[in-house]
Amino acid sequence: MTCAAAQTVTLVGGKATIVDTTAGVADEFGLAVHCGFPNLAYIGLQLYYRVDLVAGKEYLFRLTSPFQSVLYISGDSCTPQQINAACGSDGATGEYIFVPPGMTNTILFKPPVTGTYRFAVDASQAGQYGHFTLQIEDYVIPAHATCTGALPVALLPKKTLIIADTCYGTNEFGLGINCGLPGFMGQLLGTQLYYKVALTAGKTYTFYFTPYYPYARLYLFSGTCAMDPINADCGSNGQTGGITPSVSENQQTWLKFPVLLPVREDVLRPGSGQPVGGLDPAATAAGDERPSVHRALRRVVPRTGAQERPAAWLGDYRCRRLLHGAGQCHAGV
Predict the structure, then answer these.
(1) Mean pLDDT value across residues 29-45
(2) Dihedral sign computed on CA atoms, order 182, 183, 184, 187
(3) Out of 36, 138, 305, 323, which residue is the most buried by the measure of CB atoms under 10 Å away?
(4) Nearest in space to 300 (alpha carbons), one of 256, 244, 237, 267
(5) Domain ranges within the chain, ordered by starting residue
(6) Calpha distance 107→109 (Å, rounded)
(7) From its phi and psi, is residue 102 left (phi > 0), alpha (psi between -120 and 50) or beta?
């Protein structure tokens, strides 16, 4: 199936599922299509589709395949130059994701204008082809992807557990949140989920955090949803908020609040134990089988005082495609 003869896909109830195979079809453009990475040109066999999308909405594309595949989205055009410009625009006019063999990967695309968009299931290596399943849905971003919509969390007697996935949220403040960290360490560019909890003055709390994806951060602040107060709190070394060290995937770190001394960034403790407590309902809806890991919220070391202090925290990380890896974008919260 060529790009010009792309099969039309219609979203019914905001959703569509494609089950197809690239076996026996042709490679139309050879080395010419690469979404801006000529060394990774898509030289496999591909199928093209077209779908009508509405500006301002978010669409979730989820691809599962037994072979090393790639999905790329572009405008309603069929020249390699136009396809590359769109799918290599980092979401501005198109997108792309890689899917390792036997895996599932997803990406959100927000069309800039209402119209027809073409997308293809392809491969970056010759001889990579086969059956695949592609799901498309009109995705509603959860309310707690923004600070003002922070999800309330109630503390259980000893621990509270939240399991969540920040992959399909938003980056509300762009480059604005850095918690006072310099350079690369302060580039919190990922998507977030926000939560809020009432903390009692005179007690110290420990927030345990185990991300599934590297560069994840958890930061704590007072509840004022403005960039400068958030940075002031999470950059205060535990006085009015804090931020966890950056760790590798599946490593546990923690944040104590409040503290008298700065949080050490070289102290890590491997995660252990069974999940307990409540789950984030937005991340554990029926039918959601995406892998997630967790952090526990544990109350420790009584101090003095007697007033309630509202607080909110979030996991923030780069939630983008993986060129060579698991292709997943999940964080335990």
Answers:
(1) 93
(2) positive
(3) 138
(4) 256
(5) 7-139, 143-317
(6) 7
(7) left
Fold of 7-139: Jelly Rolls (2.60.120)
C-alpha span between 119 and 60 (Å, rounded):
13
Q: What is the pLDDT of residue 200?
A: 87
Cα gap 256→183, rounded to integer Å? 24
Instruction: Tell me the C-alpha to C-alpha distance, in Å, between residue 171 and each of 7, 190, 315, 330.
Output: 33, 6, 11, 15
The pLDDT of residue 268 is 27
pTM over 0.90? The answer is no
Length of the chain: 333
Contact assessment for residue 16 and residue 3, using Cβ atoms and an 8 Å cutoff: no
Cα(55)–Cα(308) distance, integer angstroms? 43
pLDDT of 276 higher than 80: no
Structure tokens at 145: 């992807």
The tokens of 119 are what? 């997308």
Q: What are phi and psi of 198, to 5 degrees?
A: -85, 120
Backbone angles phi, psi at 2, to 5 degrees: -85, 165
Phi, psi of 13 (to 5 degrees): 65, 30
The 217-221 sheet, strands edge to edge: 151-152, 191-200, 308-317, 217-221, 242-243
The residue whose two tokens read 């997308």 is 119
At position 198, the amino acid (one-letter code) is A
- Cβ atoms 40, 323 nearer than 8 A: yes
Distance between CA atoms of residues 258 and 262, nearest Å: 10
What is the residue type of 230? I
Dihedral sign (CA 275, 277, 278, 280): negative
Sheet holding 253-257, edge to edge: 159-163, 294-302, 203-209, 253-257
